[in-house]
Inverse folding.
């Protein structure tokens, strides 16, 4: 199977309470009119970006039961869903994030506890 821009991120699975975030393009110019070099904005402690993919959430431990041979042994993992959803604009702490490069694009893997604020297009 060949990777295209449509399906290259479909193969990624984000684990647990983590989010895959692509940084929002920041203004290269300050409010006073000064132009900033490219690396200045990337070193800020707080960043913002769009959530590309989200993990399933926090796993809930299953109650301990004796295994009966007649019971179905299917996977019964349940999750508490994350508040963040794909497409949200997230403001997050950079020191809680991990930078990864996938197919030449830079992304950040961020745990939900590093998210400070979300902006969602739809009404809450």
């Amino acid at each position: 199977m060949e990777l295209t821009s449509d399906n290259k991120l479909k193969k990624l699975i984000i684990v647990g309470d983590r989010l895959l975030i692509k940084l929002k393009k920041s203004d290269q110019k300050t409010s006073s009119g000064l132009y900033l070099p490219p690396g200045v904005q990337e070193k800020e402690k707080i960043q913002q970006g769009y959530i590309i993919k989200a993990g399933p959430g926090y796993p809930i431990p299953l109650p301990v039961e004796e295994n009966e041979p007649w019971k179905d042994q299917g996977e019964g993992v349940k999750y508490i869903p994350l508040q963040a959803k794909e497409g949200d604009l997230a403001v997050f702490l950079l020191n809680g994030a991990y930078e990864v490069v996938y197919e030449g694009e830079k992304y950040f893997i961020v745990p939900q506890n590093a998210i400070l604020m979300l902006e969602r297009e739809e009404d809450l």
